[in-house]
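Retro notes (design track)

What went well: tokenization of the new backbones is finally stable.
What didn't: we kept losing track of which sequence belonged to which structure.
Fix going forward: every design gets posted as structure first, then sequence, in one message. First example under the new rule, 138 residues:
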């Protein structure tokens, strides 16, 4: 009996792709909106704790969703996008010279979020193309 149904896997990947791409947009817009945030009442979205929470959530969701799917389709393409994407996100948070520089930080975080979103989209495609036949173990 599978741990997760096909519909749940697709839902997780769609959720992950949407969240990751929203994270990339968030990171790209940060330098542009920084001055206007207090007037708009949106400064909470650009707080450091929100960024940490988003990266932790995206990491857990991506690793679990793509990990389950890899066991099924055995293709490394999605993980090949996810791992560098997560690496960029964590580097942007943990490497002080990069984290403290507004534009380089935004570029690295946008790049990482985009890769993670593309990994989920690739995973959706790999799961959709998977055919259960005699060579399939699941």
């Amino acid at each position: 009996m599978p741990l997760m149904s096909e519909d749940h896997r697709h839902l997780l990947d769609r959720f992950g792709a949407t969240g990751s791409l929203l994270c990339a947009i968030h990171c790209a817009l940060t330098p542009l909106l920084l001055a206007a945030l207090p007037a708009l009442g949106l400064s909470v979205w650009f707080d450091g704790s929100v960024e940490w929470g988003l990266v932790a959530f995206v990491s857990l969701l991506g690793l679990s969703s793509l990990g389950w799917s890899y066991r099924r389709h055995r293709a490394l393409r999605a993980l090949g996008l996810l791992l560098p994407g997560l690496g960029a996100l964590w580097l942007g948070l943990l490497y002080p010279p990069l984290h403290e520089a507004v534009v380089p930080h935004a570029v690295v975080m946008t790049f990482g979020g985009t890769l993670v979103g593309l990994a989920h989209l690739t995973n959706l495609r790999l799961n959709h193309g998977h055919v259960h036949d005699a060579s399939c173990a699941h």
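Added context from the reviewer: The helical segments are 6-33, 37-40, 48-73, 77-94, 96-100, 102-129.
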